[in-house]
Known about the structure:
Number of strands: 6
Structural class: mainly beta
Shape: flat
Strand content: over 45%
Radius of gyration: 12 Å
Distance between the termini: 17 Å
Order of helices and strands: EEEEEE
Largest sheet: 3 strands, antiparallel
Number of helices: 0
Amino acid sequence: IYIQLGEVFYCGYINYLYLTIKNVAFQQILTPIKLNNLPPMIQVSCGYNFTILLDQDGCVWGFGKNEFGQL
């Protein structure tokens, strides 16, 4: 995942991401895809099976596996 001019893009092995396109779980995405319907982001942090984003207003967005409700 990376941010370019406030827009978020993702690629790689999509395991727990269902935000923008359907039926892509457990597939490898080689071309970056824009994550739609988000406000401009200024920072990203990724961990094991999760991603946290910070938008320009200071709101935190999280997505990923969320197996135990931690997100």
